[in-house]
Write a structure and sequence with these properties.
Number of strands: 40
Largest sheet: 9 strands, antiparallel
Helix content: 25-40%
Mean pLDDT: 92
Low-confidence stretches: none
Radius of gyration: 27 Å
Distance between the termini: 70 Å
Length: 666
């Protein structure tokens, strides 16, 4: 077995590989850019080597710099993680030439399957059903439009070397095709150093289901069931689960056998994933093969008990697989939510900055399930503009799908992240969405269910009452604390009342708290009683309550006359007042937000790539105004309504902060 492995990656996947290597008794070497000097993977590894500036194309994807680090460290093998150089055959060739093992498939398999165009041709030759498309190279936007019309809109424009949602656009007409073709080429060149583009038919109402395969260099190959990855945003997966709630045993086996056959046809040896589009009749179509470890591999590990990173290392060491197809079972259900530094209230635009608070739920047993959190950040660390915005992958397991969802709900409510915008409220909302609960989602889930973006969660009356009861009980605890403050004026003892008004989400409840040593009973004006027990003291940022025996986890911040409480994706300003205070508060005028309707504000920290209009131009609704690049993604800002540009405050090449004014309108 290897004594030392270098990990040619960063963030959570580097930390993930280090954990398994440590378990196997293998020393690890981290590489890092200037931006990652104090990163978690650097702290966890046995050694760390600096490889250059923050930009990935000057550090993490420069083969020579990684090879220098390999030579300097004396590592016998390299694990590439995902992204960066993980599917670059030239990198695998360089390692082979240096006598260093690549913890991944052979160069030939990467070349044949890692390239999306070539893999489609091989799949067609192997009589695998594929989505209609044009597999040749496309020179310019005019040719892209011509091909798209031949295929028929809508079409998917994809980077040949792409992955992780980068370099992908859906076009519904000629204009969107021209625009998407150029943006895809730009993103592909920036992220992968390869701007080749291909086009395929975009299948509406599809499900994205993938098969995990594992092969060795001795001709053995197995499939480790499927992952449902249909909940995606901008073609990037957000929620994954294993197994799929849609497949039956017959379809699962057919997809698995076909995936292994395809892998063996190209001499595959390592962990890999074959991705399919599956329609409502369970017809499946080959999309692509990812010749690397997938981001969502933990859900497969949770239901099979197989450590995929360990298996990759053993295969790279020349060992035959120690498990057969008959050994692979489905044990329970696993769900993964990707926590991104993206603000759901700003159309999921990237958010960067320092993590002023990062307190994930404890890993291990939670109720009848298990919590796992794969992360590469820490409290006080910084989310950089240079890399993918993923913060963590929160995974849960339980014997049933319903159980895994419930464990996930409580884990998400316990996950504290402050200092940046993040998508925790959104994924919490998905866990309660009827379509997700039923398992009837497609890849259009987010676009269909949140057509106007995510605007937060509105809790139903039962849940509101539970939160109101908890707030009333917490307020009583806080009031008692305030009565014990030293240095108060004599003869002015503060008394804790029992009658309160709790206002939240535009509704108010008159309640009475009846306290005892074990908790409090909160009585509503209509006679309903809720028993509140739990563990919270003033100053705690997390409250774990039981309401009538059911758990309720709340993130807590103090505000004047109450709390800011967050639970199940809802962000609530909860005022707890005496009856007289509530009476007077009702007379206060509401403060209105400033009018920004005539301003184009920068929605994220980023770089202005280009400005598409000039002062004095009349613009129409939906017209492109400018392009902002952040975290390797180009974002086109469009006019919300017809107007005339009166002033432009930013030019191409300028870096802007959130809410900087880009342009003004008459």
């Amino acid at each position: 077995m290897f004594d030392k492995i270098l990990i040619a990656n960063r963030g959570e996947i580097a930390c993930r590989v280090i954990k398994t290597a440590r378990k196997m008794g293998i020393k690890t070497v981290a590489v890092y850019s200037d931006a990652d000097r104090h990163a978690l993977h650097v702290e966890m590894a046995d050694e760390a080597i600096h490889i250059g500036p923050p930009q990935a194309n000057q550090s993490y994807i420069v083969i020579d710099k990684i090879m220098d680090a390999v030579k300097q460290s004396g590592a016998q093998a390299v694990h590439p993680g995902y992204g960066f150089l993980s599917e670059n055959p030239k990198f695998a060739e360089a390692l082979a030439a240096a006598g260093v093992a690549f913890v991944g498939p052979p160069v030939g398999a990467i070349e044949k399957m890692g390239d999306k165009i070539t893999s489609k041709k091989i799949a067609q030759e192997a009589n695998v059903s594929t989505v209609p498309g044009y597999m040749g190279l496309i020179e310019d936007a005019d040719e892209a439009v011509k091909i798209s019309n031949e295929i028929g809109y809508p079409v998917m424009i994809k980077a040949s070397a792409g992955g992780g949602g980068k370099g992908m656009r859906i076009a519904w007409n000629d204009d969107e095709c021209r625009e998407g073709f150029q943006s895809s080429k730009n993103e592909a060149a920036s992220s992968f150093g390869d701007d080749r583009i291909f086009i395929e038919k975009f299948v509406t109402q599809p499900r994205h289901i993938e098969i995990q395969v594992l092969c060795d260099a001795h001709g053995n190959g197995i499939w480790l069931n499927e992952r449902e990855c249909s909940i995606q945003r901008r073609n990037q997966k957000v929620v994954e689960e294993a197994p799929s709630p849609f497949l039956d045993a017959e379809t699962r086996k057919a997809m698995g056998d076909q995936s292994v056959a395809l892998a063996k046809a190209v001499g595959y040896a390592s962990a890999g994933t074959v991705e399919f589009i599956v329609d409502g009749d369970k017809n499946f179509y080959f999309l692509e093969m990812n010749t690397r470890l997938q981001v969502e591999h933990p859900v497969t590990e949770l239901i099979t008990g197989v450590d995929l990173v360990e298996q990759m290392i053993r295969v790279a060491n020349g060992e035959p697989l120690s498990i057969t197809q008959d050994d692979v079972q489905i044990n329970g259900w696993a769900i993964e939510n990707r926590l991104y530094a993206e603000d759901p209230y700003r159309n999921f635009l990237p958010s960067i900055g320092r993590l002023t608070r990062y307190n994930p739920p404890a890993e291990g047993k939670l109720g009848e399930g298990i919590v796992r959190n794969d992360t590469g950040v820490f409290e006080g660390g910084e989310i950089s503009m240079y890399y993918d915005p993923m913060i963590a992958k929160l995974c849960t397991w339980a014997p049933t799908r319903e159980g895994a969802i419930e464990v996930m709900r409580n884990a998400l409510d316990s996950f504290e992240v402050e200092g940046i915008g993040h998508n925790l409220p959104f994924v919490a909302a998905v866990m309660d969405h009827p379509k997700f609960i039923s398992g009837e989602m497609t890849t259009a889930f987010i676009a269909e269910e949140y057509p106007d973006g995510f605007e937060g969660v509105t809790l139903d009356d039962d849940h509101l009452r539970r939160v109101a009861a908890a707030a009333a009980a917490m307020n009583r605890v806080a009031e008692i604390r305030r009565t014990r403050v030293t240095g108060t004026v004599g003869n002015h003892e503060r008394r804790v009342g029992t009658e309160w008004n709790v206002a939240l989400q535009g509704i108010s409840f008159d309640v009475k708290t009846e306290a005892d040593r074990d908790g409090a009973t909160v009585v509503f004006s209509d006679g309903e009683k809720l028993r509140v027990e739990g563990d919270w003291t003033p100053g705690d940022s997390l409250s774990r309550m039981n309401i009538n025996g059911q758990p309720l986890v709340l993130k807590v911040d103090k505000i004047t006359q109450g709390f800011r409480l967050r639970t199940r994706g809802a962000d609530l300003k909860v005022n707890v007042r005496s009856p007289r205070q509530a009476e007077l508060a009702a007379l206060m005028p509401e403060k209105l937000p400033p009018d920004t309707s005539k301003l184009l504000l920068c929605p994220m920290p980023g770089l202005i790539v280009k400005v598409d209009v000039e002062e004095g131009d009349e613009v129409q609704e939906g017209q492109a105004l400018c392009t902002v690049e952040a975290m390797k993604m180009e974002n086109i800002l469009r006019a919300e309504k017809k107007g005339v540009v009166s002033k432009i405050n930013a030019a191409a090449g300028e870096s802007l902060a959130v809410d900087d004014v880009i342009m003004e309108f008459e």
